[in-house]
Design a protein that fits this description.
With 214 residues, the chain is of the alpha/beta class. It has 10 helices and 7 strands. The protein has 2 domains: 125 residues, Rossmann fold, CATH 3.40.50; 64 residues. Helices cover 42% and strands 14% of the residues. Helix 9 links the parallel strand 6 and strand 7.
């Protein structure tokens, strides 16, 4: 069956490109420190080293050994917490995002091609498919840490499109981060911001995607 064009689009949707963290798998960096450091200690660590920035650099290909060296040079008291984060990374993944696997299965049954595009360190990515089996249902995943690029850089979207043979105008991109959704939309993807599985179903239907369970 030939898919119908998405609402407001001239081309039918053929593929869905998923972000992973907090779309298919729940991620909370605090989980690595439970029972190891107090919440106050962790918050000081995050603030002092600008953890979000450091984590994004690891997502872009910086090794965690290099991250630790930087932290040891500027905030040596926090270097052991970098080790804790890496060695206990599996504890940051709190399992599947409720309902997302069902949506993935429905999309697969509808005949759409499914891929992933994630900001994730190459060193810790292997934990993702274990924590959320929906990731294994995707045909392939482009992992930023292996590419040296991170969203919302347009280059990583282009690389995903080229590698997976995607036409942005026929591809729905799903992400929980507004900046990534906006970047994808500027590049011509049918871009949807993820808030919940139920909302994603509604949004997919609104752009003309038929789910098998609909």
């Amino acid at each position: 069956m030939t898919p119908e064009p998405a609402a407001g689009c001239t081309e039918p949707v053929e593929a869905v490109l998923f972000d992973l963290g907090n779309v298919l798998v729940r991620w909370d960096p605090h989980g690595a420190f439970e029972g190891v450091a107090s919440r106050d200690e962790v918050e000081r660590f995050f603030a002092d080293v600008d953890f979000s920035r450091l984590n994004l650099r690891a997502d872009a290909g910086l090794s965690w050994a290099e991250v630790r060296s930087e932290v040891a040079a500027t905030h040596p008291q926090h270097a052991p917490l970098v080790d804790t984060y890496v060695t206990r990374f599996a504890a940051t993944l709190a399992g599947p995002v409720p309902g997302s696997e069902d949506v993935v299965r429905e999309l697969r049954a509808s005949g759409l091609r499914l891929y992933g595009l994630t900001n994730w360190s190459a060193e810790t990515y292997a934990h993702g498919p274990v924590a959320a089996p929906a990731i294994r249902l995707l045909e392939d995943v482009l992992v930023s840490g292996r590419e040296g690029l991170v969203k919302p850089d347009p280059a990583i979207f282009g690389r995903a499109a080229e590698r997976f043979g995607l036409d942005p105008a026929r591809t729905v991109f799903v992400d929980d981060a507004p900046a990534n959704v906006e970047a994808a939309a500027r590049l011509g993807f049918v871009a949807l911001r993820f808030t919940s599985a139920d909302a994603l179903r509604r949004d997919l239907r609104a752009v003309g995607v038929r789910l098998a369970a609909s």
